[in-house]
Structure formats: C-alpha cells, structure tokens
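**Protein fold record**
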Amino acid sequence: MRTGMLALALGLLSLCLVPQLPSVGWLLMLAAGAVVSLFTRGWLLGLFLLGFCWACWSAKQAVDDRLAPGLDGRTLWLEGRVAGLPARTAQGVRFELEGAHSRRADLPQRLQLSWFDGPPLRAGEQWRLAVTLQRPTGLLNPHGPDREAQLLARRIGASGAVKAGQLLTPAAVGWRDGLRERLLAVEAHGRQAALVALVLGDGTGLAREDWQALQATGTVHLLVISGQHIGLVAGLLYAVVAWLARWGLWPPRLPWLPWACVLAMSAALAYGWLAGAGVPVQRACLMLAVVLLWRLRFRHLDAFHPLLLALVAVLLFEPLAALLPGFWLSFGAVATLIYSFSARLGAWRPWQAWTRAQWVIAVGLLPVLLAVGLPVSLSAPLANLVAVPWVSLAVLPLALLGTLLLPLGDAGEALLWLAGGLLDVLFRALALVAQQRPAWVPPAPPLWAWLLVCLGALLLLLPRGVPLRGLGAVMLLALWVPREPVSHGQVEVWQLDVGQGLAVLLRTRQHSLLYDAGPARGENDLGERVVLPTLRKLGVDSLDVLLVSHAHADHAGGAGAIQRGLPVRRAIGGEPLEEVQLQPCVSGESWEWDGVRFSLWRWADARTSNDRSCVLLVEASGERLLLAGDMEAGAERAWLAAMDSPRIDWLQSPHHGSRSSSTEAFIRAAAPRGVLISRGRNNSFGHPHAQVVERYRRHGMTLHDTAVEGALRLVLGAQAGVEGMRSQRRFWRDVRDG
C-alpha cells in the first residue's frame, strides 16, 4: 500500500520538473500505457504514470485558461463577480473577479485586479469594468520567487488594472464582509487587523512593520490560517470529548472515539469556512481528515501512512499545489516531526517535547527554505517557543470565542479587547527580537551543497547515540560553501528584473559594484523586496561601490534599502539624494579591479536629470560594456565627443529605450553588438519605442529585454552571449515575444 501511494505521489510531484507539458496525444498514450501497466506486473509504473498524466492534464487546463497573448496590454470592458474579501491598500483596492466575460473576447474565469483609488467593494457584487489586462506575470530573478507559478497554482488567468467601473448588481452585506467590518470596529489595542487575520484569514490589513517582524522571527504561520490553527481547533474538540469520556461524563451509548473524530472534523470545517476555505485551509482540512481516519481505523499502521495518504489526497485534489512554497513547508514540518519523534525509546516530558520540537523543525525545514528561496530565521526556535502557545492557547481561543459572542455586545468585545492586548504584547516582543536577530538570506547553494545540507539535517535529527549523528553538523557547513569565483580579467554582470527601473550588479573576482538600485514608489520598494535579497542569494555580502546614476525614483529609489541592508564602502551619484550620502560622479575617474577597468563620465553642462546620469564604462579582456543610465540625445553627443574610442560591445539601453535616446549617430559610432533593455512589461511610457527598436535591429544588434527574458546574465571578457532567466524553461512560464 505504501509503495503504491509513493509511486502515485512521485508521479503527481514530477509535474514540477516538466519544462513543457505533453500534448493531449502524448497524455492519452501515457494514460493507456498506465492502464496496461496496472493489469500487468508493472503496477508501480502504472500508478506513477497515472499520477503524472492527471497532474499534466490539470496543469494544461490552468495554462489554457490564461489570457490570450493577443489581449495582453489591451483595455476591455468586461463583467464579473467580486470573489473573496477585497483588500484595501494605501493605493486603492485589490480583489479577484470570477466568471469574467466580455463581448469582444474570451476571458479567463478568474482575474486578479487592482483599482487605484477604487471604491469599497463587497464579495458577490457584479461589476462592469474597464480593465487593462495582462497575462500572468512577475519579476524573474536568480533564486527569487516565481510569481507566475504562484498565480497558476491559484488558477489566476490574468491580472489587470481597473480604469473605470459601474456597479451592476449590489450584493447584500456578505457575512464575512460584515464580520470583518465588525472586527475592525472593536477596540483591540490597535490590533484589529491582526484579529481579522486570525479569525477570517485576511492579513491584508497588517502593517508592513508587522509582516517584517513575523518574517524575521519565523512566525508568519501564526497569523496566517494554516494547519496549525485548523489542527488546534479540531484538537480542542477532540480533547474535550476524550476528557469527558475519561471521567465518565460522556454518554455511554455513544462511542466516544467516533464522536470525537466527527466533532473535531466538524469544528475544523467550520473554522475553514469562516476563514474563506482558501487553498492552505483546504490542504489543512484534507490532512486532518486523513489523520482522524487513521486514528479511527488504521492505528496499527505507522505515522508515515497518514502523511503519505494526505500528500496524495492533496495532490489529487489540486496537483498545482506543489508549485506553492507553503505546500512544501507544511508537509516538510509534519514529516520532520514524525521522523524525529517516532520510533524513539522512552518518553519525554511535555516541556522537553515542546522545546525539542522547535529546534527539530528549524533543522528539518532548513533544506526546504533553501530550495524555495525563503529567508532563514535564526530566532525562529526561540520566538516560536513562546509565540506558538501564546497564540494557540490564549489569543486564538479568545478571538474565536469573542467573535462568536459579538452578537451579545459587551461580552464579545471584552474578549476581543483582551485578545488584542495579548497580540499587541506579542508584536512588540517580536519586533524587538527581529531588530536584534533579523532573518538571514543565505547564498543559494549549488545542488551538491544542498544535498549535503539535506543529509546533514537527516543525521542531526536522529536520536542521540546513533553513529555518525554528529557528522550532520559538519555537513551543514555546506551552507557557507564559497561561490565559484569570477576569472581574473572578467566581470559577471547581472541586469536584474526590476520592472520599470534599473539595477545592475557587476562582480569581479574580489569586488562588487551595484549600478542603480531599482525603483521605489511609496511602500513598494523594489530595492528592499527584490534587489537586496537577490544580492544576498548571489553571495554578495558587501558592496565596494554603490553607483546611483541620477535621482529619479526608478533608478535611485532602492538606494536607501541597499545601504541599510549591506555594508557599502563607497557611494557615488550623478545627483545628490536626500536619503543616501553620495560622492559626486567625477568624469575621468577610473580604477582597476582584478584586471577589469572601470571609468566614470558625466556631462558637466547637463540641464536635465536624465542627462546628468553618471555613465560607467567597463572594460574586461578587450570587451566593453557601457552603463548609460537615462542619458538622452544631448548627453550622447557629449559622450561621443569626449571618447577617443567610442566602440563598445554591449550597451545598457539609455533611458529604457526611450525615443529621446539611442540616436542614430550614437548607435552608429558605438556600434554595440548587443543591447540590454530594462523596463516594465506594458509600461505606460511605451518603452522601448518602436523607432529605437527598429534602429537597433537595422544595425544588426541583438536585443535582450528583462520584460521578455527576466534577469540577464553576461560574463564580460569571456566573449560569450547573454543568458536570460526565462531560457530556463518551465511549463508555467509565459513564452514572450516582447
């Protein structure tokens, strides 16, 4: 039984490794082969193929339901129904639309939309909206999150920005909408948004600082309704029935065990319904159902059987769940606890089991966190040691009971006030811990080092006295394996995918330079969210130079976050900034690192911010790269006049390919063989301009575009080409033509 379930699970999980989905014809052939194998001696192969075919078929349905390429960037009038709880943000409202349809085109069934300064929306409302649609997209950087995979796993077929709207059918105040408003209206020491997250699973109202504290301390799971909360509610009902039966207070004519399991499952389903029954909640309820079934009928089997059965059940229900990091974290945590606590001799006292559970989970989830690219919280074992019982045994029961008693007025509000006070104490403590021990973003290890970390974690989790257990700690040192050095006389160039902005990392053998720091608008700081984590995952722990071309927010916005997050030995800028102290860019200044020459230039007579860009020329083993910032036609003419030899090999497209840059004279004189364009997809500026693109191609240049290829990598001095992240094929990644 276990072997068959394992074969089926492997077939379902193999979807994650598929670069391209098989055609319908191939799937039918594989399914036929699976059926034949099931009735012969190859039944394990048959189960594997059945799992693979079902996963691919389900994925194909989701891929086919995405927005047609011809509609990408177009604005259409459409109609649909608001689903779930719309999230209010500082910029407006973000929500999902179900059953979307338009007279002019076929649309995906589920859209994710944002409405700048939009009106309050309620679940169930029917709207007619003018929406600029985009295919599911996301920034794609080395070792970073893959938003396209996450959107596909949630079966979001398109995203879009609402330009105008008309309410067609108002909805009665939905019970979840009404309950959220009621919770937000109570006095809870300013922690009403956290109560909404605990009770309804809606964490959109949490302040940015609160999310940062939760992430730094590894306690996000406490405020996101997950298996822990579902299991706690079910466990409380189960424990009550078991306690009544133990003391003879349960009716003898009713067998206590079946009733305990049924009531526990009912409580879990009710809480999941209250929380909106999202994918994590569905996964938790399925896992709980399997565990209760094991407890009721199959206790003679070991604990890994229900875990494997739950894994298969979740993947059969939604094969795309394996594309979500939460899937691996949930099953990884449970598997770690089973592996560590089962088959041990002797019993631990409750406090011993609880304290050991924290470091066990920290060690067991380390390989998972590395694989999915999430930060590692060094304070998580200590923080969870206190925070988990604080929330599970005090805050959550008070919050749920207070919510149930809200119709009674003062009683419910008093309990919520107390729950809010406990949450306030918790958040203040977590903020202090996060300040002292921020989350660690380790460099992404090579495959062999990651496998060593996995083996080391398995050895460390063995019982004391097992031979070679101590070797596990040595294997974990693979976390600090040095990155492969850049050859002398070469420079590794990463033009990161930061949307409508610019951030370029240059690394020689022993030095690092960051040219521009990505955009920041309001709270959306891509320097903090994208550039800084990417630098750390690439092994950059300090910068020799931070060079900010000019003061525009799409180039300089993330500079403050970079300087706060990494040691910066020297900061240079074409223009002064308020947040970061910059040395002025001096034309003619140059230096050499590891056989690579760097030269600065800035137009002294510039009158606009774009033309004041600090330009960087990099020369490595006879190959030249020009980072031009946003310089326009005037600065280009001045640069040509100042250069003895303007010939270059690679050009960072000035001003993102704007029509005011990349003049005919500049392109003819510089004659690069390739151009690196950094811009946002379907951006409102129309970058790169069609005339500029035509000019590049007319001169025989190869275009590399972050909006099409993701982050771009070039090894200057190796006389090689440019590699885009999107060249690493995955079936969920959109094939783009620009």
